Amino acid sequence: MQKTLDHIGVAVRDIEESIQFYTDVLGATLIDQYRSDAMGVESEIAIMDINGARTELLAPTNNTTSPIARFLKQKGKGVHHVAYHVGNLDEAIEDLTAKGIRTLPNSLRINKHGRRLIYLNPADTEGTIIEYCDYPE
């Protein structure tokens, strides 16, 4: 199954400060900014574009339950996950299962932009949080 880099997720403490850095220093364009209070997300998200390359800035909105808050406490600011676009998410999940790769419980969801996604278990991915996603019509 072919995979292409979709975006990189970056954990930040101050979303506005980070947006300013990406726009002023890196020349990025802010594509969208929104808040997700969904269980297991609880983050403010800013989608940045630099010449077609996407970065998602992720700031926790709940310091108790947000996975981004936990990440910041454990590892600090920086790359949170790498996302790969797969042609068909259902087939990709079947392929992972056949290879003995687990996904994170309750991480399968559809985001605001219609992207279906799931996170692979970092225990099975050399410690890296990897997202698989597709964009069904």
Automatic annotation (TrEMBL):
Give the family per the record.
Answer: Belongs to the methylmalonyl-CoA epimerase family.
Lineage, top-rank taxon, reads Bacteria
- Can you give the residue ranges of the VOC domain? 4-135
Task: Tell me the protein's name.
Answer: VOC family protein
Organism name = Pontibacillus salicampi
Q: Which UniProt keywords apply?
A: Metal-binding
Q: Which Gene3D superfamilies match?
A: 2,3-Dihydroxybiphenyl 1,2-Dioxygenase, domain 1
Q: Does the keyword Metal-binding apply?
A: yes
Q: Name one Pfam family in it.
A: Glyoxalase_4
